[in-house]
Amino acid sequence: MSTPEASTTKKVQVRRYKPEENPKEHYLNAEKGVWAWMTTIDHKKIGLLYLGSITFFFFVGGMLALLLRTELLTPAQSFIDADVYNQVFTLHGAIMIFFFLVPSVPAALGNFILPLQLGAKDVAFPRLNLASFYIYTIGTIFTLIAIFTGGIDTGWTFYTPYSTQTGTNVLLMTFGIFILGFSSILTGVNFIVTIHKLRAPGLTWNKLPLNVWALYATSIIQVLATPVLAITLLLLVMERALGIGVFDPSIGGDPVLFQHFFWFYSHPAVYIMIVPGFGVISEVISTFSRKVIFGYWAIALSSLAIAFIGFLVWGHHMFVAGQSSLASMVFSFLTFLVGIPTGIKIFNWLATMYKGSIDMKAPMLYAMVFLFLFTIGGFTGIMLGSLAVDIHLHDTYYVVAHFHYVMMGGMVMALLAGLHYWWPKMFGKMYSEFFARISCVIIFIGFNLAFLPQFVMGSQGMPRRYFNYIDQYQAFHQLSTIGAYIMAVGFVIMAGYMIHSLLRGKPASANPWGSRAMEWQTSSPAPHHNFEHIPVIINGPYDYHKPMSEFQLGIAHSTNGHQSFEKVDVNVKSAEEKA
Amino acid sequence: MSGHHISSAKFLWGVAIVLFFLTFLTVAVTWIHIPEPWNVVVAIAIAVVKATIVVAFFMNLWWDSRFNTILLVMSIVFFMILIGITLLDTLFRVDPIPTF
Amino acid sequence: MSETSAETKHPAHLHHHFVDSDQQFESSKMGMWIFLVTEILFFGGLFAAYIVYRAWYPELYLEASQELDAFWGAINTFVLIGSSLTVAMAIRSAQLNQIRGLIINLWITIGLACTFMVIKYFEYAEKLEKGIAPGIYYTYDGLEHEKANIFFSIYYMMTGLHGLHVIIGIGLMLWLVWKAKRGAYHSEYYTPVEITGLYWHLVDVIWIFLFPLLYLID
Ligand SMILES: [Cu+2]
């Protein structure tokens, strides 16, 4: 990518700024009142607003999932009829993907952490950032109206021709998601500019935290893919409103074209969901292994490689949809390529842990769970990508299990790792380590119990999206349902200790994990403008062999009068790009 | 400073006149009926030249930071991917549109 | 509010998280370029639909585009290119601190944009009268091809979305005029003029492709 052109080396006077412990003033109490929260342009608060929203939608989507699993306890209909079942699984999918997963790490954690990791005071366009949050809110309102005025039963993919013919409220729902897309786009625009323009002095591209690289790759996908979703949904809306005949075969259109357009976004979208998770995992593994990350450039560039290759593989969702066999073969081949950069990441993380002094704190525990589950999810994805196997497995529970291993086992675990990792920085409080580990183990057990049986019954032929089934699958379905309940218990425990932490958690120190990363070199919770000084970076974010003092430097003249510190001259490459 | 390039009025008028001429040209070539695939090629080629001129000299990309050019090229590349791979399907189907 | 960069003078338009005006200007411009990338891919979906159907039914496009009047299409192309010129002149005026010139050029641009929309309106009206409406409302029987309605659906989607962008552009420029009259812009700060200009040129570029693709299929 564009390296800082004509980077000039200049001398600046720096001194060490030790982060203040237990600050009296921080971003949470800088402005008070509900109105101040609603109109804040502080990226940290906007991040928390997103965090609250995605928690809410995760709860809603999770409840819907439990409803589905409860219905599936018995082969025959028990308490939900087929139409309601269709609506519930559609909502579960749409809410979890568009309202929870897509904004989870980029918009919630990313907003909070990105400027801190860059040593910036805010994102490049703070007001635009707030606007994206409200666009997100407006999108959710439209969707809620759609749910209460007819619902939607197309599945989260809105395939034509069914979506143009069903009596449910596809129009409002797709319009809501159309609006939501702009929120995602604007966040992407904001992040790319922030990463390019607002890096602290000395923070050159080869010193960027890997989380920032991951967010960068994610933003690129958001910016390139989301507009195509927008136009696809707009065409779908027009198809329903005017019958324009581009997608609807009954008036001369081609439904497979809709799938092309839809998956041009939605395959890269799974990388919007998972790549920022990779970033979190890189941070957590390095911090808790006390070791410089293995293969920095391999991890950084594999994020970009995934972002790029992710655009070439969308047709693997359409092997049996009637696309030409030439296209299927090309897509199948290209799909295998995605495994390469993903494998590179996994190996580099393992190599980072090798001979590190590993500290199995809760975030690291979640990272381990991630590695285990995501690897299973990834491998089963390769199987689904192979042409012949997919004919058998297509639209079975095998696909459902694969997707949940990647998205829940991968992305949600990464989100939880990040949440536990940055929690002290967000709220200045510690949570109960004991209960955090307990709930992690419970979720791990529940998850595998819920989704491993689905691989088996899927390969035996159980189709997805059915509200009843033949008796031979009952044992698998019951195991799966029990697993889902166990997972729910894990999340209830998590909610318990998180709320307890907020109310009466022990105060967190500025750097409870002993990390070298920049976001930990300011007080917890962070000050209103992130740093009380202008940070200067001379080392990489994972240089654990260098003393902590070298990571707490800031420009010397912006002091508040204390002159007793020793000042040092360092040479920094100007991070700011001037071309 | 890269971002503050100031073009002279004469230069801007010159650019516009070239664009006007190319617009006339693209209409004029339709009068001589170039045979099938080449008429599209010519029309697109002229449009690309016109767009390039607008982008380079009206949008000042010529003097701008290189990253903005990369962005533009990227958008075109990804559009090509969208259309290229989609055509890989639609052009090679046994039955263009499955009949229902 | 602890202001850390108090050592330099702090112009009114500079936000606190930027080091200087140049950084802020370059950031805004980069942001706009990224947004234009999304616009290109947004229209890209429609162009893709256009290309797919044209590859399937070349004769449909040949036949149906006869209904479009290349003369008015060409006039509209001239109008939009002219407005691109005046926007470029407006930015030049702002750079040279000629606020009067800025406002005049913006007004001319708005006038040209309105001209474009008026011509577009007459084109639409003429077609709708004949029954060439989008989708299932298509009732025209002057064309033999059974998928003629799809060509016009794509035509209406593309030109309609483009027209919407023109209207948004008019709104943005009215806002610029209003701000310029209140002295918001000068040679040190004209970022909104610059990035609105970028947007407007892109609208022009898209039309440069739409014109031959829709009107000039001979
Ligand atoms: Cu996929």
Task: Describe the fold and architecture.
The complex is a heterotrimer of chains A (579), B (100) and C (218). Chain A has helices at 27-30, 34-38, 43-71, 82-118, 126-148, 162-165, 170-197, 210-242, 255-289, 296-309, 325-353, 362-385, 387-393, 397-427, 433-459, 474-504; strands at residues 9-16, 553-555, 568-573. Chain A is globular and about 75 Å long. Chain A is built from 16 helices and three strands. Chain A folds into two domains: 40-504, Cytochrome c oxidase-like, subunit I domain (Cytochrome C Oxidase, Chain A, Up-down Bundle), CATH 1.20.210.10; 516-578, no CATH class. Chain A has a three-stranded antiparallel sheet with strand order 2-1-3, with no helix packed on it. Chain B has 100 residues and is an all-alpha fold. Chain B has one domain (9-91). Chain B is 68% helix and 0% strand. Chain B is built from three helices and no strands. Chain C has a single domain (21-215), classed as Cytochrome c oxidase, subunit III, four-helix bundle (Four Helix Bundle (Hemerythrin (Met), subunit A)). The longest helix of chain C has 36 residues, at 21-56. Chain C is elongated. Chain C has helices spanning 21-56, 58-64, 70-95, 99-130, 148-181, 191-215. Classes of the chains: A mainly alpha (579), B mainly alpha (100), C mainly alpha (218). Chains in contact: A-B, A-C, B-C. The interface between A and B is medium-sized, with 31 and 23 residues. Residues 267, 270, 316-317 of chain A line the site of copper (II) ion (CU).
Structural features:
heterotrimer; A: 579 residues; Cytochrome C Oxidase, Chain A; 16 helices; 3 strands; disordered C terminus; B: 100 residues; mainly alpha; flat
Shape annotation of chain B = flat
Please give the CATH architecture of the largest domain in chain A: Up-down Bundle
Using only C-alpha atoms, the radius of gyration of chain B works out to 19 Å
Largest interface: A-C, 52 and 46 residues
Query: How much helix is in the residues of chain A?
Result: 55-70%
In terms of quaternary structure, the protein is heterotrimer
Task: Give the count of structural domains of chain A.
Answer: 2
The number of distinct β-strands of chain B equals: 0
What is the secondary structure topology, with strand pairs?
The complex is a heterotrimer of chains A (579), B (100) and C (218).
Chain A (H helix, E strand, L loop, with lengths): L8 E8 L10 H4 L3 H5 L4 H29 L10 H37 L7 H23 L13 H4 L4 H28 L12 H33 L12 H35 L6 H14 L15 H29 L8 H24 L1 H7 L3 H31 L5 H27 L14 H31 L48 E3 L12 E6 L6
Antiparallel strand pairs in A: 1-2, 1-3
Helix pairs in contact in A: 3-4, 3-5, 3-16, 4-7, 4-8, 4-9, 4-14, 5-7, 7-8, 8-9, 8-10, 9-10, 9-11, 9-12, 9-14, 10-11, 11-12, 12-14, 12-15, 14-15, 15-16
Chain B lengths: L8 H20 L7 H23 L7 H25 L10
Helix pairs in contact in B: 1-2
Chain C lengths: L20 H36 L1 H7 L5 H26 L3 H32 L17 H34 L9 H25 L3
The complex binds copper (II) ion (CU).
The site of copper (II) ion has 4 residues of chain A, from helix 9.
